[in-house]
Amino acid sequence: MAKQDAPKKNNQAAEERQVPEEASPPASQGNLLGKLKLAAFVMGLVAAEGIAAYFLLPGSSSAGTMDPEELANATEPQAAVQAKAVDVPETKMDPTANLGVPGTGDEVEVDLGNFSVTSFQPTTQTTLRIDFHLWGTVGTKQSEEFLDQWGKNMNRLRDQILVIVRSAELTDLTDAGLGLIKRKILEKTNHALGKPYLRTVVFSEFSFIEQ
């Protein structure tokens, strides 16, 4: 009887050892479960930070729900400011208003310099050499201010005058009073200076030679 009981006891012990091993989950399943929990935690943390940033940023919650009329009203003052910045009263005045009008005695002549221009005439396929001395008249009280502004912008203003004469048609150059060229010089100069300093311009020693 003792010999028969020994195998039974051995089998019973083996079964008891197998039960805990079968009941405990595999190690790989436990690691996978832990990784899933960690990933879910990180995703939840990122989502919470995104929601908090959306509500904390200034204007983030109201910008998307602003009424179109409110947006138009908000941009209107800025547009008005820009319009005022561009709207210079002096540039609206006609720079040729005093062209051909006799002097009133309160103006002086200012020397605008000598010019030499080469102009190609496409209609006649010729080149003209144009030489002239340009003068202008300004108000007596504005003469010093004009000369100061002319000195600061002389190169740019002379370049504009050269472009005007160089692009003039032959009919404009043969005009006895050079009226169109004078008007363009007055307009460009006064507009560039931002004030109607020049009242008239006068050509002296004007000549052009066809080459």
End-to-end CA span: 144 Å
Structural class: alpha+beta
The whole-number mean of residue pLDDT values reads 73
Assembly state: single chain
Describe this structure in words.
The chain has 211 residues and is α+β, with helices and mostly antiparallel strands. The chain has helices at residues 2-23, 27-56, 60-63, 68-86, 89-92, 143-166, 170-173, 179-193; strands spanning 107-121, 126-139, 198-210. The chain has a three-stranded antiparallel β-sheet with strand order 1-2-3. The longest helix is centred in the first third of the chain and has 30 residues, at 27-56. The model is unreliable at 18-25, 58-65 and 74-96 (pLDDT under 50).
Topology, please?
Blueprint: H1 2-23, H2 27-56, H3 60-63, H4 68-86, H5 89-92, E1 107-121, E2 126-139, H6 143-166, H7 170-173, H8 179-193, E3 198-210
Antiparallel strand pairs: 1-2, 2-3
Helix pairs in contact: 6-8
Keywords:
single chain, alpha+beta
Short description:
This protein is an alpha+beta fold and 211 residues long.
